[in-house]
Specification:
two-stranded antiparallel ribbon, alpha+beta, 63 residues
Length: 63
């Protein structure tokens, strides 16, 4: 599924995958970073069906 221009414009952009992953780790819900074909930066999505999900075990919940 490709991101539509209107959706891209509303989403937060991350310049690098590392920044997007850092945001994923802080989130209370399951998110996945992906590179947008429109802006060429990274966005986050909660859609994970059939997708590779970043698995991180958290010893301590985020503060």
């Amino acid at each position: 599924m490709r991101t539509r221009p209107g959706i891209c414009a509303r989403k937060r952009r991350y310049a690098s995958e590392a920044e997007a992953v850092a945001a994923v780790l802080k989130a209370a819900i399951t998110l996945r970073p992906y590179r947008c074909a429109i802006c060429r930066q990274y966005h986050l999505t909660s859609r994970t069906k059939g997708m590779r999900v970043l698995r991180v075990e958290r010893a301590h919940p985020p503060v």
